[in-house]
Write a structure and sequence with these properties.
By secondary structure, the protein is α/β, with parallel strands linked by helices. It is built from 16 helices and 17 strands. The chain folds into 2 domains: about 35-65 and about 350-445, Aspartate Aminotransferase, domain 1, CATH 3.90.1150.10; about 75-345, Aspartate Aminotransferase, domain 2, CATH 3.40.640.10. A 7-stranded mixed beta sheet has the order 4-12-11-10-7-5-6, sandwiched between helices. It has a 4-stranded mixed beta sheet with strand order 1-2-3-15. Strands 13-14-17-16 form a 4-stranded antiparallel beta sheet, with helices on one face. β16 and β17 (about 420) form a beta hairpin. α15 (about 395-410) packs across α16 (about 430-445). The structure holds pyridoxal-5'-phosphate. The site of pyridoxal-5'-phosphate has 15 residues, from α5.
């Protein structure tokens, strides 16, 4: 095992990185040359040696308010001292109700009830289960088929990977849930390359849903789940008009429409939810990440009134929905979320993204001049740059770039294949936007 000088308080065997089986990481490569951070504040992480790392990824698309913001830290500390845990089944605590009302108030239309869980994956599986239970409860027990989309990511639960469209996540376990189909993805480099915001071309890809209705019959279709912007496969914004067309087709055939807003929720595209940006009210929205700015795990599903009313009909003391998690509405998460939502509102962070989106897009698109760049996409406060793969395999050039970015340029980026995806905290200022672009430009120079 590889020794590395980590903080001696880290465990009984602090110089050994071997035991932690890291998620979604090439363990050996990481442990040979680790990228460790041990402190964070606002726009930066700091390595254990104290070197600042500019956070161009909001952690993992989650620290939208920036890191270790005082009001969030204080809310968590206060809650930890006041009440550590309360059972969410059959009992309640005030902040669970308060935070649900606050989240519902941010959502468009009658998306006015919130089911709480702990992650985006749990939110995805919860939404899919609610969709199946909804139809069955209304006497449409044949409506069991779930439709996802190629290049979609809905977390790693069995439901999420089944409707997800990333083959490495699916191939070993994706066939366990039967009755799944997929829409085609909406990316076409020839027609969309170097678009700013939503590409002009691609709304017609929604028509494939009509094809699936013909193939499977509407009476077997429960729900369609899509991300308003596919994040994990390289930040692919929805084409203009695409989501509206999906809504129309779902309405025509009684299919529920679910938006996975785990990334796009809480300001990433300039609105509390991307549903508002696109003027489309889905039947459910899944969220996580930005709901607490990443400070405590939390996720959830917003559901429309007709869905809540399907389950919650009488005051008989019988359980409405046989689903839930021990840590649904955990007090620490609720406290963190309330403080986070206050910060978003007080600092106008969602509106701020709308203001800086054109500046961000113009700055980011200057990377087009770099060698090997194949496409650049921007939407909200998200940017992605695709570049040519090396001959020894897809993703290797990006991995080298990520290492150099961290060790040599002091910046954290995400990779997806040979794409850099960036999504900084919403508090980024104009000079830091310039810094992100300059650092990424130097990394691109180094890897070609
Ligand atoms: N859905 C989307 C769109 C995501 O991007 C992610 C995570 O990146 C998830 C779901 C899963 O969230 P989690 O990792 O919190 O389970």
């Amino acid at each position: 095992s590889v020794a590395y000088d980590v903080d001696s308080t880290a465990g009984a065997n602090p110089n050994d990185l071997e035991a932690f089986f890291m998620p979604f990481t090439p363990n050996r490569a990481f442990k040979a040359r680790p990228r460790l951070v041990s402190r964070s504040k606002d726009m930066h992480y700091y390595t254990p040696e104290g070197r600042p790392i500019l956070d161009a990824t909001a952690g993992l698309w989650c620290a939208n308010a920036g890191h270790n913001r005082d009001p969030i830290v204080e809310a968590i500390q206060k809650q930890a001292a006041e009440m550590d845990f309360a059972p969410p089944f059959q009992y309640g605590h005030p902040k669970a109700f308060a935070v649900s009302a606050r989240i519902a108030a941010l959502a468009p239309g009658d998306l006015d009830h919130v089911f709480l869980c702990n992650s985006g994956s749990e939110a995805g599986d919860t939404a899919l289960k609610i969709a199946l239970a909804y139809h069955a409860t209304r006497g449409n027990a044949t409506r069991t088929r779930l439709i996802g989309r190629e290049r979609g990511y809905h977390g790693v639960g069995f439901g999420g990977i089944s409707v997800g469209g990333m083959s490495p996540n699916r191939k070993l376990f994706g066939s366990l849930l039967p009755g799944i189909d997929h829409l085609p993805h909406t990316y076409n480099r020839e027609k969309q390359a170097f678009s700013k915001g939503e590409p002009e071309w691609g709304a017609e890809r929604a028509e494939a849903l009509e094809g699936l209705v013909t193939l499977h019959d509407a009476s077997t279709l429960a729900a369609v789940i899509v991300e308003p912007m596919s994040g994990s496969t390289g930040a692919i914004p929805a084409p203009k008009g695409y989501l509206k067309r999906l809504r129309e087709i779902c309405d025509k055939y009684g299919i529920l429409l679910i938006f996975d807003e785990v990334i796009t929720g809480f300001g990433r595209l300039g609105y509390a939810f991307a549903a508002e940006r696109y003027g489309v009210v889905p039947d459910m929205i899944t969220f996580a990440k930005g709901v607490t700015s990443g400070a405590v795990p939390m996720g959830g599903v917003l559901v429309r009134k007709h869905i809540y009313d399907t389950f919650v009909k009488s005051d008989d003391p019988v359980i409405d929905l046989f689903h839930g998690y021990t840590y649904s509405a955990h007090p620490l998460a609720c406290a963190a979320s309330l403080a986070t939502l206050d910060l978003y509102r007080e600092e106008g962070l969602f509106e701020r993204v709308r203001e800086i989106e054109p500046i961000w897009a113009d700055a980011f698109h200057t990377l087009r001049a770099k060698k090997g760049v194949l496409d650049i996409r921007t939407v909200g406060l998200v940017g992605a740059v695709d570049f040519e793969s090396r001959e020894d395999g897809v993703g290797r050039r990006a991995y080298e770039g990520m290492e150099r970015a961290f060790h040599e340029e002091g910046i954290m980026v995400r990779t997806a294949g040979d794409t850099f995806a960036v999504s900084p905290p919403l508090i980024i200022n104009e000079s830091q936007i310039g810094e992100v672009v300059d650092k990424l430009g130097r990394v691109l120079d180094k890897i070609f």
